[in-house]
Structures are given as structure tokens and as C-alpha cells.
Description:
Elements: H1 8-25, H2 29-35, H3 40-48, H4 67-79, H5 87-101, H6 104-115, E1 120-124, E2 140-144, E3 147-158, E4 163-171, E5 183-189, E6 195-200, E7 211-222, E8 226-227, H7 233-269, E9 271-272, E10 275-276, H8 281-309, H9 315-339, H10 350-358, H11 368-378
Parallel strand pairs: 1-4
Antiparallel strand pairs: 2-3, 3-7, 4-5, 5-8, 6-7, 9-10
Helix pairs in contact: 1-4, 4-5, 4-7, 5-6, 5-7, 7-8, 7-9, 8-9, 9-10, 9-11
Bound molecules: flavin-adenine dinucleotide.
Flavin-adenine dinucleotide (FAD) is lined by residues 89, 122-126, 131-132, 156-158, 203, 206, 211, 360, 363-364, 367, 369-370, 373.
Amino acid sequence: MQRDLFSEEHEMFRAQFKRFAAREIEPKIGKWNHDGITDRDTWQRMGAEGFLGPCMPPEYGGGGGDFRYDAIVMEELAYIRAHGLMTGVHTSICMPYILSFGSEEQKRRYLPPAIAGEMLLAICMTEPGTGSDLAGVQTRAIRDGDHYVVNGAKTFISIGQLAGLFIVVAKTDPSADPPHKGISLLLVEADTPGCVKGRKLEKLGLQAQDTSEIFFEDCRVPVTNLLGREGQGFKMLMEKLQQERLCIGIQSVASCRRALDDTVAYVKQRHAFGQPIASFQNTQFKLAELATELEVGQAFVDRLLAAHVRREDVVTEVSMAKWWASDLQKRMAAECLQLHGGYGFMKEYPISQDLADAAVQSIYAGTNEIMKRIIAQRLGIG
Ligand SMILES: Cc1cc2nc3c(=O)[nH]c(=O)nc-3n(C[C@H](O)[C@H](O)[C@H](O)COP(=O)(O)OP(=O)(O)OC[C@H]3O[C@@H](n4cnc5c(N)ncnc54)[C@H](O)[C@@H]3O)c2cc1C
């Protein structure tokens, strides 16, 4: 079915990105998966071609478009399984914090190199002891003259090794009651003394995406690097979660489409009992059901994408899409793997990796249980 939310300009941008991805990204995915990390050069090429920050204002080097351009890049990357290039984190999650809450000086200092792919951005919320319960972060940023002295440990930070700038969630008032009122956001340049990159973590999936520990040890950050106002961090985080969760819905649906396309092709050429496995009713019914769910998911995500571009509050619906689409991605990968038989278990068939990659979609950007809590609260029963 023709999707009707993209203009001719969007489709031209998609075609341009597909050409770029075929040339500059697809040939490198195997190496990135092997190395456990992407490379700076590719990020910079993406920046130079206008694929990072297509929605950022032109005065900072952006394309001046709307969020649909970011969505196109995310969809295409998910479809080609280039999960290591987490442009969603850099472009759709981190940049908007700086654009929305940054001072003019912060925007001029950080957005142009980020849009050019020269300075990668990461966000440090999660800590070894605190993930879902964000108000419980233990990292502290205590004022000392013109600086904050930051101490704490963060973990599971996407693009942690490559990042040049971290948006750090820290307590500037550890005794605040309620605790979330003591949270602020700080912009910490990666080469600031006391900002230490720890291990690149070994993971089940998303092999090429560097996920890291980040430590702050008496790290002195100028007060001018406070993002927004002191004590407003939690509010800023909540404001930006709609887009972050929509990104997961967009990626999940695109990943489902790839798994389904590959499986439809596979069952046509694989034979058992003298006939293609596509001819078995079980295969047909399974794929018919999955194709139906995919279209339902696509329609919902597209509707939310359009509403988000219109700046509507769709927090409840985006929470629904996040849990539902990521659950579908896991089911899709598992069912499609089964239809590949033993080959589905072999690494040379990407469907095996799809199952591993899908696992995290229901965990990060707020777990699916937290999504259901939000929905329940908005139903007035939480
Ligand atoms: C690959 C990867 C990349 C990531 N990237 C980033 C990043 O860039 N930046 C960042 O800050 N973080 C990142 N994260 C962290 C991620 O956001 C957290 O893992 C996630 O928020 C869950 O927190 P947790 O792991 O501490 O789980 P926990 O909070 O300990 O949850 C464990 C289980 O308990 C359930 N649970 C918790 N509270 C409730 C509740 N109230 N009701 C019902 N169930 C509950 C959860 O749903 C989950 O099933 C990443 C994680 C991964 C795996």
C-alpha cells in the first residue's frame, strides 16, 4: 500500500540516501559487526551529505526539514540492518535536547560539528544501579565556583566510545524532595579531564553499535555547560521521550519488513517433500498473519509520525506503538527464523541476527513494562 505521509521531496531524499547507503554503508556492515563498532569516516560522510540533522535549522548546518527526514534515514538503516549507525541517538534524540534547551552559545558550539558528523553525541541516563527508575540516578554534579564537579558511573551508553559530547543526567541537588526535582542535564565534552570511557560492552545483538560504560571522576564541567535550568532535567527528559519512543516504533516496523521480505524470498526457493515450503499452508498462514500485523503496525506508526510532525501530544499512543511494534519485531524474527529451518540458526543467514537484534527493542528507550505503566496511568488506573 502506498504510504501517503511523505512528499516528493521526502521521496527524493530517500532515493538519495538509498544510493549513499548502497555505496558507503552496506559494504561496511560486516566489518563493523566484526569490530563491534562503526567508523568515524562514515559518520562524517553522512554529515557531509546532509543525512545527520536534516531536521536541524539551516543556521547550524541542518537541512531545515521536518522529522520525517530523520525517520527516512532510520527506516532505511533498519532495513539494511545497519544497526551500528545509531543515527537515532545522535540525530533524533541528542540533537533536539541542544536545539530545544541549549543557549545560543551551546547551539553554535555543538550543533554544527554534530550535524557534520565530526562530533558524535550520546546520552548518559542509565547507571549500574538505575535504569527504569531514572529519578534514582546517583551521579552528582555539585557546584564549585564556575564549575560543576561531576562524579558517577553510567552504563549501556550507545555510541559511548565514538562520542565527543555526552548529555549527562546528574543530581545537582541530591537532597531534593521529590528526588526528580534535583536532576539537571549537563553537556560534558568527552575529553574533559575526569570523563573516562570504560569498557565497550559485549552484547547479544546490535554487534556494531558501541555500547559503553562512562565514568565521571571529579570531572569539572563549566557552569556554562548546564543545559536549560538547574533542577529541570527530569522535565526536559520527559518532554523528549515522545520522539525517542517513536524512533523505536519506526525502526521496529522497518526491521519487520526486512525480515518478512527475506523470509518470503526464502520459502519460495527452499524445497521439502518435493515442493517449495511456501506451498505448505502453515507457511502461508504464518506469513499472511505476520504481513497483516506489519501493515497494522505501519499504519499506526505512520499516523503517529504525522501527528508528531504536527506537534501533537501522542505520548500515550507512542508508548503503545513502542511496546507493540518492538514485540512484533521479536515475534516476527522468531517466526521467520523458524521458517528458515536450520539455516535460520546459522550466522550466514541474517535472520539469525535479527532475532538477537530484536531483543533489545523492548528494553531500551523505556522498557515495554514502563510503556504499559504510562498507558495505564493515562487510562487513569495507574
Ligand atoms: C543496547 C543498549 C543500549 C542502550 N543505550 C542507552 C543509552 O544510550 N543511554 C542510556 O542512558 N541508556 C541506554 N540503555 C539503557 C536502557 O535504557 C535501560 O537498560 C532500560 O531503561 C532498562 O533499565 P535497566 O536495564 O536498569 O532495567 P531495570 O530498570 O532494572 O528493569 C528490569 C526489569 O524490571 C522491569 N521493571 C522495572 N520497573 C518496573 C515497574 N515499575 N513496573 C513493572 N516492571 C518494572 C523492567 O521493565 C525490566 O523488565 C541501553 C541499553 C541497552 C541494552
